[in-house]
Design brief:
Chain lengths: 327, 485
């Protein structure tokens, strides 16, 4: 086999590298399940990464850094909720303006802390479990935020599909009028999950600047990951586990691109660095194309394709992006 | 529970959807609310279920005055409504839909709800699989699910808005026997319908609404004639029709089936000759809309053939129909016919589409010409959305080709005053005299009787009646429209 290629090492790197993306993807999944698109993701991550880094270095407390990042994410999301849910403005326009604004704000406020020393959330192997063969190294030899990201995936699934609040959340996302007719306040639910999802997105910023891509500078390494998270929500068909799997797949492609560089030295390195992005677009296109009439007709004729498209076809929440009409 | 509604008003701007309605609903009774589309039935029931707030009036539940601000408040008084289009969550499963909105713990015991649903289904004779997504259910099954959910939540007043629309006759039997059982158990059941047959089979008491007011009420046994008179009134139709000489065949639909609209279109075989004016009667969305769109080449039939001027046009697109001399004018003037934001002159420019650059002067003078000959109260530069409904209609008529073979008009006079209606029909009459076939739909029986050479009555996607106006009258048509031939 190839030299220096360790399957376990790759798997471990994927789990660790995907942690911030998993948090952001889960946060946006919750928000979009309530029918709101928070397009400010990318800027929010940069701003909360900055805030987490600055607070953690000044106070010396990692916990304070994470707490502040969640608060920053929640605040930006609250603005989205205010403008698009309460005031009924276009979710896309509000989110887009906010994403540009928060990113510039992060670089402006954080400029004096650029390239300074800061705390890092280091490795904290889980006692006993980390000694297990294979799984020990892949799952239980990471830093705290990475464990958190894994727990969040399971929790998000349980919350959405096994609790009454999760059911209410999905109801609002599918049909606001029907939810209202059953005594649920759709606006309230939308605001709550926009803010809660925003807090998770904020945490992902801290996971970047205090853990996965430690430090602060311009450009920050996490820039652009918000857009990836938005795409992953669609790829994940608004299902938390599938969306998280998408994040791991993306991290896998990134890790592999490093290996490919050493295996194929003749190919310019940039090809492999950029490759995960068009690959994600390709996968996204495939998972969206199965909704088309043509794909459905094709699938009707080929039983094998039918199984495949059934698995991939997951429609977005029916009220996604819509404002509630009032009379 | 006894519910008394006193002098209920609901106004939307100038429109009075409910204009002083009094009604008493008693326990152990199935109460029918009968009336045409737009009579105010749905609005009244939405007020009672807390979905819409009344403008004024009083609601008494067991002599206690209530004012529901939202559906949850009505539900807490035991009032539940099944909406015409089931108000549920299609991607979620039957069980999740059943649970949503019910009282439950933070992490509910799904097996408990599963048992409760199974029990209710057994009792009512429903057959629902708890794990199926609701999107795969028929309308009838979604209705059964809603009914079961309301019962599980302890509702004692059940309002059903047009429950027999779009369900099979078997499902209707199941539903009706369930409702009878509930009513004999002391529940108050309200059946909102425009179908005489449903009301006559199920209800003990009937209140008829017309134009936002109560036009009459009756108790079992019902007299069909009396109910029809309350529904449609008996205004004499002015027989002002010139009668045209039928010419060559213009349109021939042969065993056409098509999807679309509320009901689709089934087994439709019709010939229309040039010079004929054919009125399509029926409750809105009974298949007239699909008929017109099939004849215009906008909707492709799933079965059957479409001929225009004896040429087989099945499967061709709208442009091919247009070149054969077919013109179609949809009901939604601003949505489908005119382009909001463009001026009258710009609309004329689109019709010309001769060159890449627009000749604005030419289209302005063309617009001026049309405005004058069709008496549109507008200037060439007026945006079309600023025109009144009547003027929009005149403008659309001015865009019609000069010598069409077949003119298809959907509710051409809706929302127009008497003067405009007369003017429109004078124009159309002239077009028909020039040898065009005109097929139009209208919700006004009087208008259809006044101008048509032939009337087709639609019911649930089928043509159930094909008569000449001299062989029928408003009452007979009203009966046919309500599904009784």
């Amino acid at each position: 086999m190839m030299d220096g290629f360790d399957m376990l090492l790759v798997a471990s790197a994927v789990i660790a590298g995907a942690a911030p993306l998993v948090m952001a993807t889960l946060g946006e999944t919750l928000t979009e399940r309530a029918g709101v698109v928070n397009l400010s993701l990318d800027g929010t991550i940069v701003l909360s990464a900055m805030a987490a880094f600055v607070v953690a270095s000044l106070s010396g407390s990692l916990l304070a850094g994470f707490a502040v990042s969640a608060a920053v994410g929640a605040c930006v999301a609250a603005l989205v909720a205010l403008f698009s849910v309460r005031l009924g403005m276009s979710q896309v326009a509000v989110g887009f303006v906010l994403t540009l604004m928060t990113r510039d704000l992060a670089y402006f406020l954080g400029s004096q802390y650029a390239r300074t020393e800061g705390p890092i959330s280091g490795s904290a192997p889980v006692p006993v479990l980390s000694g297990m063969p294979v799984l020990g190294q892949v799952l239980f030899n990471h830093s705290v935020p990475v464990y958190l990201s894994m727990i969040m995936v399971a929790f998000a699934w349980w919350y959405l599909y096994r609790t009454s609040w999760g059911l209410r959340l999905r109801c609002v996302g599918e049909n606001m009028e029907a939810a209202y007719a059953r005594g649920i306040d759709p606006d309230l639910v939308r605001v709550v999950y926009t803010v809660a999802g925003g807090a998770l997105v904020g945490l992902s910023g801290a996971a970047f600047s205090l853990c996965t891509k430690p430090g602060w500078g311009q450009p920050q390494g996490c820039e652009g990951s918000g857009w990836i998270a938005l795409a992953l929500v669609i790829f994940g068909a608004w299902h938390p586990v599938r969306a998280a799997l998408g994040a791991y797949l993306f991290a896998f492609l990134q890790v592999m691109s490093i290996h490919f560089q050493s295996w194929f030295p003749d190919v310019p390195a940039q090809v492999f660095q950029v490759a995960p992005f068009p690959l994600m677009i390709f996968l996204l296109a495939v998972s969206t194309l199965v909704h088309s009439e043509e794909a459905k007709m094709l699938a009707e004729r080929h039983p094998l394709l039918r199984i495949l498209t059934r698995g991939l076809a997951q429609a977005p929440p029916l009220s996604l992006g819509k404002a509630r009409s009032r009379d | 529970m006894t519910i008394a509604l006193r002098s209920i008003h609901k106004h939307y701007g100038d429109i009075r959807a409910n204009d002083g309605i009094d009604l008493v609903l008693r326990p152990s009774t199935v109460h029918g609310i009968l009336g045409e589309n737009g009579a105010g039935k749905s609005t009244l029931m939405k007020i009672l279920s807390g979905y819409v707030r009344k403008t004024s009036g009083t609601i008494l539940v067991d002599s206690e005055e209530v004012d529901f601000k939202n559906p949850a408040e009505a539900a807490s008084h035991g009032i539940g409504m099944l909406y015409q289009d089931p108000l549920d969550f299609p991607p979620l499963t039957v069980l999740e839909n059943f649970m949503a909105g019910q009282r439950m713990k933070a992490w509910p015991d799904r097996s408990l709800f599963r048992k409760r649903l199974a029990g209710l289904c057994r009792e009512m004779g429903f057959d629902l699989d708890p794990e199926t997504p609701v999107v795969r259910l028929t309308v009838g099954e979604r209705q059964q699910l809603e009914l079961a959910r309301h019962l599980a939540a302890g509702r004692r007043v059940l309002i059903l808005d047009e429950p027999t629309t779009g369900i099979s006759s078997l499902q209707k039997d199941v539903l009706f026997s369930a409702l009878r059982r509930l009513s004999s158990g002391g529940a108050t059941v309200v059946l909102v319908s425009h179908k005489l047959e449903d009301v006559e089979t199920l209800c003990d008491e009937v209140t008829v609404l017309k134009k936002g007011r109560v036009s009459g009420s009756a108790v079992r046994p019902f007299s069909t004639g009396a109910l029809l008179e309350m529904m449609f009134g008996r205004e004499p139709a002015p027989p002002l029709r010139k009668g045209h000489e039928p010419g060559a065949q213009a349109l021939f639909l042969e065993g056409v089936h098509a999807h679309g609209g509320r009901t689709g279109l089934a087994q439709c075989t019709v010939k229309v000759n040039r010079g004929e004016v054919v009125g399509l009667a029926g409750l809105e969305g009974s298949g007239q809309d699909v008929f017109l769109r099939v004849a215009a080449g906008l909707t492709r039939p799933t079965r059957g053939r479409v001929h225009v001027s004896r040429k087989d046009m099945t499967g061709r697109d709208h442009h091919a129909f247009k070149t054969m001399g077919v013109a179609f004018q949809p009901a939604a003037r601003l949505e489908e016919g005119l382009i909001a934001g463009l001026s009258v002159a710009e609309h004329c420019a689109i019709l010309e589409r001769s060159s890449f650059s627009l000749d604005l002067d030419a289209s302005a003078s063309l617009a001026q010409e049309r405005i004058q000959s069709f008496q549109v109260a507008a200037r060439p530069e007026s945006p079309v959305e600023s025109l009144s409904g009547g003027n929009q209609q005149r403008l659309l008529l001015s865009f019609l080709p000069d010598d069409p073979v077949l003119l298809l008009l959907e509710n051409p006079t809706r929302g127009l005053d008497r003067e405009s209606v007369r003017w429109v029909w004078e124009r159309l009459d002239a077009i028909a005299s020039n040898g065009a076939a005109i097929v139009f739909s209208s919700s006004e029986i009087d208008e259809i009787l006044m101008v048509s050479d032939r009337v087709l009555v639609f019911f649930e996607g089928r043509i159930i009646h094909d008569v000449r106006p001299e062989d029928t009258d408003a009452l007979m048509l009203g009966k046919a429209i309500a599904g009784r031939v």
